[in-house]
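REQUEST ID: PR-0412
SUBMITTED BY: lab tech R.K.
PRIORITY: routine
TASK: structure prediction, single protein chain
INPUT:
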Amino acid sequence: MSAFTESAPTDELLSGFGTHGTAPTPQQHRRAGITLVVASALVVAGGGIGWWLLAPGSSSGPAAHVAAFDNPQQDGDKLDADDADQLQVDPASTRLVVHTPAAATYVGRSVSGRLCIMQLPTGDVSTETCGPDRKGVVLTVGTPREGQVRLVADGGPTPAAAEGWKSAGANVWTHA
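STATUS: complete
OUTPUT:
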């Protein structure tokens, strides 16, 4: 059996701490000031970059091009106010892209600037899928059982016909 004795750690580890009798020199004050300014600048710059990267609707690269947005909004492209509010979509941005037996499907931009595809089935709850507004983005809404609609912005991969996807217009495919 062994025993050990313990000495007071504060005496050994902190000896001489706080016992300096001299004041900091002007050079030390200057270094501390410069360090504070540089640290503050880094925090501000980092916060600005973080905000830019994480801001809603922010994306890297060019914005998505979807042919439906090339034409002005028509009466049939408009969502009613309740649907637009529920889906949090900019009502002036919506375009009807396909009408299937299951639902009417629209594209638009969310109030935060993201690209969205929205499915509004008759007598059922509306659903949407949103993603970054950038070239080649692919968004799918619906279920395999009820049918799906896929939006592929210019530059994105074309859905495979061998997998059951059928073109329903520019940038839009359906899967039954």
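NOTES: The chain has a mean pLDDT of 82.
REVIEWED BY: pending
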